[in-house]
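Minutes, project check-in
Item: structure for the 290-residue chain
Input as provided by the requester:
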Amino acid sequence: MSVADAPEGQARLAAFLKGLQQWGWTEGRNVRIDIRWGGGDAERTRKNVPELLALGPDVFLASGDHPVVELQHATRTAPIVFTMVGDPVGAGIVESLARPGGDTTGFTLFEFSVGTKWLELLKEIAPGMKRAAVIREAGTANGTGFFAAVQAVAPALGVELTPVGVRDGGEIERGINAFARSAEGGLIVTGSAQTAVHRDLIVALAARHMLPAVYFGRFMATGGGLICYGPDFLDEHRRAAGYVDRILRGERPANLPVQTPTKYELVINLKTARALGLDVPATLLAAPTR
């Protein structure tokens, strides 16, 4: 299951399959893989879960908070390896990162401290910005955690924050349109299934209102967004293959600690920067990823 049945979702699947091959598992030879795409649609995900359970899998790979929670509600015995979950402890998916407990473990999407980096980058590329709309999924551990991280550094950077929800496209459009009525603004687009699903709308609104924006994933910068700073999602899925291998060989998820990202990417869309009339600092152009 993936947050989006889109090219980036296919790329993550390919990275996972390549990782499995490196551990000696080849589809059709010694492993069978059944795939369902959620596309950020909660109802579709709920329908996918019983279909997959009926196949009797030895392990699940689930991407995003909602698919993991649905699987946990449906089974307490099938091992689950997750990817792209923001706060698995806050969401009640695992007991702790070091000792997940139960039959679920995996790889977190972010450390919330990345929120401070987003605001710092946005201020560096658009130093005149004094207001920032934080596009986040309200009522979730991700939405709360990211907003708190940005809020912690906003006063020192002289930036006033405005939260904008992402329940649907209408809420996003109303929120950004209202925010853009005042000058000196920018956008911080935090990681969630809904911001991924509505990425084209968000990028288009940022361009329409000439708002510099920082995003959580490479695919949003390559899709026209100004700048992104976030984990290497392909690397996370390659690493997830290692956990699936260990479970297939008999290890218990409870004994496999939840891992945080190890590689981050900084991507700047120079065409978008020119369209916004921004000069990208040389320090950003030379910044290494980690």
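Outcome recorded: The CA atoms of residues 186 and 212 lie 5 Å apart.
No further action items on this chain.
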